[in-house]
Every structure is written in C-alpha cells, then in structure tokens.
Design brief:
The structure holds 2 protein chains of 2 kinds. By secondary structure, chain A is mainly alpha-helical. Chain A contains 12 helices and 2 strands. Chain A folds into 2 domains: about 140 residues, Cytochrome Bc1 Complex, Chain D, domain 2; about 140 residues, Cytochrome Bc1 Complex, Chain D, domain 2, CATH 1.10.760. Chain A has a two-stranded antiparallel ribbon. In chain A, α3 runs antiparallel to α7, α5 crosses α8 and α11 crosses α12. The N and C termini of chain A lie far apart (about 45 Å). Chain B is mainly beta. Chain B has 1 helix and 9 strands, in the order αβββββββββ. The radius of gyration of chain B is 15 Å and the shape is globular. The model of chain B has no long low-confidence stretch (mean pLDDT about 90). Classes of the chains: A mainly alpha, B mainly beta. At the A-B interface, β1 of A face loops of B.
C-alpha cells in the first residue's frame, strides 16, 4: 500500500508544479474520522438516513433535518435567514450551515458549542425555533413505531432506541455527507486542464495576496477557526455575539466558525447571517477587510483590505467555483418505517 | 534554621525553574506535548502572520493569554501539578498536551 502511495505521489509530482507537502495538504482524504463507540456500518447509515428525512421527528410532523439541510440545496436551505422557517414559522437568527464534510470538523454549529456530531444531532430536534421536539416525547414516539424499533435493534443491538442511539444513527448518516471529486481535485492530482488559467491564477491569489488560506485552509477549505469578520460594527449590542455566548472569552467576542468552501456554489446565501447572495460579493467583502473596517471589536487580524482589483476578485471566484463537485449520489427515502 | 532551609528550597526552586518556549507556527503549537514542573514558565511565541491565543480551562492552572499578535511573546507560570490541554481559542485544531510534575 505504501509503495502504491509513493508511486501515486511521484506521478502527481511529475506533472505538477506544487511541492509534495502542498499537494498532500489539498488532497481529499479517502476516509472520515469515526468515533470508536459509533463505528460506521451500512445499517447505521441507512437508519440515520431515514431519521434525517423523517418529519415525524418534529413536534408537528412537518419538519425534518432535511428541511434546512437538503441534499438538493447544497445540504442547506438556500434561503435568507428571514425566510427560513422552523416550528410554527418561527425564525432562527442564523443561516443554515451546509452539512457537507461536517465529519471533518471538530466543533459543530456556527458557534462551535459542541464537539461531536452525536452531540450536534440532538440540538435542532429540541430547539423551539426548529423542530421543537422534546426528547422525552420523541423517544417514546419512535419506540411506538415498530419499524424503527426493529432497525435500531439491528443497527445498535445492545443499546435499544434511546436518545444516545438516535444521535449516533443520525451522526452516522451525516458522516457520509462528503464532497465529491471537483475540478480542483483533478487539478491537484495532476490534470492541468481541469482548471482554467483564470482559476489557476485565482488559486495563487487565494493562497498569497488575498490571504484566504488564513482561514479557508486545507482540503476542506476551512481550518475550523473562529473569527469576527466585521459583518457588524461596534460593540454588537443586541446583535450576534457568536461563540462569546458559549463562554465569555475575550477572543470569542462576535466570532463564528469558518465555513467550508467545498461546493460553495451550492450553499448560498453566505455568512452566518446569510446576508450576502453571491460568491463575488462574498469574496469582495472578505478581500476588502469586512463590511465594517473600523470600530469592530475583536475583528480578525486576517480581515484586511488586500487591495485586489476586480479582475483578481473574478479570478478568485473562478477558482472557488472549481471546488464544486457533482451532487452526492443519494436516494432520498420516500417510505418510512411504520 | 527551618526558615533558612525553606528559603534555600525556594531559591533552589527558582533557580531550577525553566522557561519553555512554545512556537505557534503554521497553525500548530510546537511542541505539541510538554512535560513541565511546577514553577516553570511557558512562553508562547507567535510566528504566524495572524493572531493566535492560548488558554486552558484546567481548574488548577487556568489561564487565557488573550489575543496574541504576530511576532509577540506571552508567558504563563505553571502553578500546580496535573495533566491538561492548552488550546488556541481561534484555531481549535491547535492543541498541546501538558503534564506537570513537582
């Protein structure tokens, strides 16, 4: 296996101008991290998929996880925050983040308030503005559906249908939501024609002059870091405090997690407040140092005006478009356990 | 006599207390594991072109150096023995495992 990898790397190097360590940094991994107490099996993934698409997991049987994270909508909902409706048409304060490649993140939600997908999976179920389904109601409800009881018995034979096994099943499915091969992936593996000259120039700008890789780094185009990018000004009074709400740590004032740029053309609108509709506008906003340059408390030091001209912005946009691959091949369930 | 011995012990402790430099480079703490003694100082040096941070929520050694600008250093003194992690509040993938002995 090692020999094969060496030959593969040698082949890539022979057709690429990038160094070996740089190629390694951008290559998509072939596996996802999986916790020892929830190893991936087909039964767990399939069960998690059914639960993910099942509206009966919400209080009024109208909302599923897929309502806000749909595979045909970039694993998000493609609507502005003001139009994203949860339980009884309530509105949440944040843009639905894409679920693509969440398996590779070690902090979940925009504010990173939990570490694992198992912890994350139960949050929106109970949130009153989302599915508003108390687990004390949901677990008996699911246990009354014999089809689910049977599937849990197969997937988690020693655990029964509990909130823990429910979270594990949903997390297992979420770990399969990974990006597919994009033009960038083919380019990085040596196919020089996979990206246009403009996109290649955009890649260089992305890494160097524009400093995008200060945050959007590595194969997933996020380093999992938290920043206040200056979408709001001043003290943020009455506005979104981000990770500071998790703990009053000075470095967390107004910060949010850096989102992945994989399949970024499919996951508009952009930013945690969904305030930007186009990729060009989002790129220009970041490259100019944020919407507000002055008086932003705890603004990221990476958010500076990089003095890019319009052509350079367009080249970066051309590059980020190459991070989009085909939709994941997934069959959306139409029938659910009874 | 007891006072003299105590004074000597304190002085000896100070003499042997070390300063351990931890570099923050390429979004990584270097080194990633530390074996230190009570009284040692850890100095964080930011070699990246953007800000970093270092903190621990360990009850006995809690600290938070705040935002650390490029090219600056910040130090913390280790107070009690135990094992804990140090993270960067900005880059949670940055982690140091620390073991403190007497």
């Amino acid at each position: 296996m090692k020999q094969f990898l060496l030959i593969f790397l040698f082949f890539i190097l022979s057709v690429s101008s990038l160094s070996a360590s740089e190629i390694q940094k951008w290559l998509r991994p072939t596996t996802v991290p999986v916790p020892q107490d929830n190893l991936l099996t087909q039964e767990r993934i399939e069960l998690g998929k059914l639960l993910f698409f099942d509206v009966r997991l919400s209080r009024d049987n109208t909302i599923s996880c897929a309502t806000c994270h749909h595979p045909k909508r970039g694993w998000t909902d493609l609507v502005p925050v003001t139009k994203a409706l949860g339980f009884k048409k309530k509105r949440g304060p944040r843009n639905s983040p894409t679920l693509l490649n969440v398996a590779y993140q070690n902090r979940q939600f925009w504010d990173g308030r939990v570490k694992t997908l198992e912890e994350q999976a139960l949050g929106p179920l109970e949130a009153d503005i989302e599915m508003n389904m108390p687990l004390s109601t949901l677990i008996p409800k699911l246990n009354a559906i014999s089809g689910y009881v049977k599937l849990f018995k197969i997937a988690y034979p020693n655990e029964g249908l509990t909130k823990e096994s429910l979270a594990k099943a949903i997390a297992s499915f979420e770990r399969t939501i990974v990006s597919t091969e994009s033009p960038f992936d083919r380019y990085i593996k040596g196919d020089k024609k996979a990206m246009s000259p403009n996109a290649i120039k955009g890649f260089e700008l992305f890494k160097n002059k524009a400093h995008c890789t200060d945050c959007h780094d590595g194969f997933n185009f996020t380093d999992g870091s938290f920043h206040n990018i200056g979408l709001n000004d001043g003290e943020l009074q009455g506005k979104e405090l981000g990770r500071y709400n998790v703990k009053k740590r000075a470095a967390w004032y107004g910060v949010m997690k850096t989102p992945t740029l994989r399949d970024v053309t499919k996951s508009y609108p952009y930013f945690h407040d969904g305030s930007v509709q186009t990729l060009k506008e989002a790129t220009a906003l970041c490259a100019s140092g944020g919407r507000y340059e002055m008086d932003v408390k705890n603004k990221s030091t990476s958010m500076k005006d990089r003095e890019l001209n319009e052509q350079e912005i367009d080249q970066i946009v051309s590059f980020t478009k190459t991070l989009t691959g085909p939709d994941l091949d997934i069959i959306i369930p139409k029938k659910f356990p009874q | 006599m007891k006072t003299v011995i105590l004074l000597l012990l304190t002085l000896t402790g100070s003499l042997f207390a070390r300063e351990i430099i931890v570099d923050q480079k390429d979004k990584t703490f270097i080194p990633g594991t530390l074996n230190v003694k009570v009284g040692d100082t850890i100095t964080f040096k930011n070699s990246d072109p953007f800000s970093h941070n270092a903190y621990t929520d360990d009850e006995d050694n809690e600290f938070d150096i705040g935002m650390q600008a490029t090219g600056t250093t910040k130090s913390v003194k280790i107070k009690k023995e135990g094992e804990f992690n140090i993270e960067c509040a900005i880059h949670p993938n940055m982690l140091i495992k620390v073991k403190v002995t007497k």
